[in-house]
Design goal:
The protein is built from 1 helix and 4 strands; from the N terminus they run H-E-E-E-E. By secondary structure, the protein is of the alpha+beta class. The chain has a domain at 29-61. The protein starts with 9 loop residues before the first helix and ends in a 7-residue tail after the last strand.
Length: 61
């Protein structure tokens, strides 16, 4: 059975494992105020609400 001759460097290990994070896409949920899709635990970019309170003032247009 093949055995590695040298230990892989930390840099190579991290480069190999970094690709796993690329495969995970952000989850999308519906805003309860305006029903627009948005990323959970973030302010809704369409209406500016977060946890039932208006946090940002969004200009129409």
């Amino acid at each position: 059975m093949g055995v590695p001759k040298r230990k892989p460097s930390t840099s190579r290990q991290k480069m190999r494992r970094a690709y796993n994070s690329v495969l995970k896409l952000p989850q999308i949920s519906k805003c309860p105020q305006c029903a627009e899709p948005h990323v959970p635990h973030r302010v809704c970019p369409a209406c500016g609400y977060y946890k039932g309170r208006q946090v940002l003032t969004v200009n129409a247009g």
